[in-house]
Amino acid sequence: MISFNEALSRVIGVALPLGSESVSFEAASGRVLSEGVTARFAMPRTDVSAMDGYAVREADLKDIPFSLIIAGEAAAGTLPGQRLPERTAFRIFTGAPVPDGANRVIVQENAERAGDRVTFLRPHGPGRNIRAAGSDFAAGDLLVPAGIRLDWRALTTAAAADQGRISVWRQPCVVILATGDELAAPGQAMERPGAIPESVSPGIAAFVTAHGGRLLRSERLPDVPELLGAAAARALQEADLIIMIGGASVGDRDYSRSVFGEAPDYVFPKVAIKPGKPVWLARIGTRLVLGLPGNPTSALVTARLLLAPLLTGMSGGDAATAVVFEQGCCADPLPACGDRETFLRARMTERGLVLADSQDSGSQRSLAASDALIRRLPGAPAEPAGAPVSYIRF
Length: 394
Ligand SMILES: Nc1nc2c(c(=O)[nH]1)N[C@H]1C(S)=C(S)[C@@H](COP(=O)(O)OP(=O)(O)OC[C@H]3O[C@@H](n4cnc5c(N)ncnc54)[C@H](O)[C@@H]3O)O[C@H]1N2
Ligand code: MOO
Fold this sequence. Notes:
Blueprint: H1 4-14, E1 20-24, E2 37-38, E3 48-49, E4 53-56, E5 66-74, E6 88-92, E7 104-107, E8 111-114, E9 117-120, E10 130-131, E11 142-144, H2 152-159, E12 165-169, E13 173-179, E14 183-184, E15 196-197, H3 200-210, E16 214-221, H4 225-238, E17 241-245, E18 265-268, E19 273-274, E20 280-284, E21 287-292, H5 296-314, E22 326-329, E23 341-349, E24 352-355, H6 365-368, E25 372-376, E26 388-393
Parallel strand pairs: 5-6, 13-16, 13-17, 14-15, 17-21, 19-23
Antiparallel strand pairs: 1-12, 2-11, 3-10, 4-6, 4-7, 5-9, 8-9, 18-20, 20-21, 22-26, 23-24, 23-25, 25-26
Helix pairs in contact: 1-5, 3-5
Bound molecules: ligand LQZAQKY5 and molybdate ion (MOO).
């Protein structure tokens, strides 16, 4: 069985972008730029006021108090090119073009206006309160480079470039197939003896969307090979990535692998990790199929460790950045690790990482309260409380 590191490097190897497309800003959130965004013009476009106040000439300033006639007004959006006559002031607002000849804006808090005169009553500070043309960026400057995921900060910078459309990598289209006779839609399990709520695909669906995928649909299917086969064939037509949930193990009714043929072209058939050993990844033509174990914690842990880099890379990002381990300390004693690399659910607190009450891979209660996975290497000895640990945000 391969190690987690080997599985991760194989995921990174197949997590390739799927081609680019041009989108409007409304559709760009969370997408990865396939081409950098360059500015169509300099910002500010012209010298502009940084404050609400009065534009003046330096040469006209006298000891306070002194007055000037107000000769005009400039607001944001006013065309540049107005001229400030000597020994006058202009009423000016933040973002307005500074009239030619003016070289300082005095904030209105230091002045008092009466009709067409302004009297400066308090000393102005050293700042000129003018943003020079091009001081933010010049025409043609690269504002956001290719490869950046457009989060709310990068979207703002990109929009400032005044490009109507931008080039982004295509989103991987995903179909989720959750398998198991026992599964019922949440809200409908109690009425059916033997049923349990299908809890994994709602979590995985949210995970897919958060990591740059486009969810086409999520289906719940019984353990009937014909039905699974038909659903898999449909999914292979439409999706770049199919996520099978459950049926990954060796039970007689575990069909998730066999619906893709006698011997799928595995990227890996399982991984030496706990929880999540039965996780698998295969290529079916140009599509990828990821099999997550049915145990809810195993499914979510393997999603965090292997689906995150897969979706990150397929959506144009740097797959390796999706799996970053940090150093911390564990507030609880740690048990010795067996021969499978183990990821323990934990919660980040001011005291350090606190282990979840249950580490059972079927446990679902602890998931909502866990935001970290502590990484324990095979054969690691037991440790007392306070030991340094490597962990990943969960
Ligand atoms: N003889 C062996 N048995 C098992 C092995 C093994 O190596 N040899 N591996 C165990 C491990 S480790 C895991 S993890 C599980 C994973 O098995 P499957 O992927 O085949 O999962 P299922 O059998 O379908 O289900 C396991 C468990 O999870 C519940 N489940 C499944 N899907 C969902 C869902 N969508 N929502 C909520 N709960 C779900 C299911 O009812 C079962 O209780 O296999 C071990 N067995
Ligand atoms: O790997 Mo399983 O996920 O240990 O229960």
